């Protein structure tokens, strides 16, 4: 017996999503052109809708305000970032996952370099647009903070460390590194190897955070770091037989300040 044909639901959904994104981009292009020629304050929603060839109500189906209209891709990009986090392999160091996730944001800007450069110019000139951009970026930071809170291993934290603070600082560091590279690339007219610049920026973040909050490895909490992930900067244990000796084992690439801090904590507990 032949199986009934499955409805092409995913294909239809994908097509609908593409049409929605195209409409948002068309409206955004009209808004940016008017902002550039008439000025932001002098441009009305009705003028943007007319320039895009849509009704006023269609504009408001896609955007809540005219300042939101020049950021058409952030909602879809946020969904792609979530997909990266949701599909992360269990052995991957959480900070590496977040770095992979935010690459989707950079790819959004790099997909339309000329548009991104013009939008960057506008956000520098119009405080309201700058505030909207900051609000959009903060959504990524909140998403990454929630992810790290759920994936950092609390048992791997040193005594006195604040795990929620660690997650927030780590997420902020990744977003800040990304934004630093993005702004420099946009100021250069979207020229240069932005992916390579991003790699170098993330290397700086990883070097500072080391393996703090490393998830459980195969051997239990803190054990068995996977290939390609960074372990804790140093492991300090007390000598046997009642000895007043501490033994420290550190990674060769660990920052000296991190190693010394770990040793000092161990000395204070002994």
Q: What is the secondary structure topology, with strand pairs?
A:
Blueprint: H1 9-38, H2 45-52, H3 56-62, H4 74-86, H5 94-111, H6 113-125, H7 127-151, H8 163-187, H9 194-209, E1 234-238, E2 246-250, H10 256-269
Antiparallel strand pairs: 1-2
Helix pairs in contact: 1-2, 1-6, 4-5, 4-7, 5-7, 5-8, 5-9, 6-7, 7-8, 8-9
Give the assembly state of these chains: single chain
Instruction: State the secondary-structure class.
Output: mainly alpha
Strand order of the largest sheet: 1-2
Shape: elongated
Give the terminus-to-terminus CA distance.
74 Å
Largest sheet: 2 strands, antiparallel
- Low-confidence segments: 1-11, 213-231, 236-243
Estimate the helix proportion, in percent: 55-70%
pLDDT averaged over residues? 78
**Count, helices:** 10
Order of helices and strands: HHHHHHHHHEEH
Radius of gyration: 24 Å
- Beta-strand residue percentage: under 5%
Quick recap of the structure?
This protein is mainly α and 270 residues long. It has helices at residues 9-38, 45-52, 56-62, 74-86, 94-111, 113-125, 127-151, 163-187, 194-209, 256-269; strands spanning 234-238, 246-250.
What would you note in describing this structure?
This protein has 270 residues and is mostly helical. The chain has helices at residues 9-38, 45-52, 56-62, 74-86, 94-111, 113-125, 127-151, 163-187, 194-209, 256-269; strands at 234-238, 246-250. Helix 8 (163-187) runs antiparallel to helix 9 (194-209). It is elongated, with a radius of gyration of 24 Å. The termini are far apart.
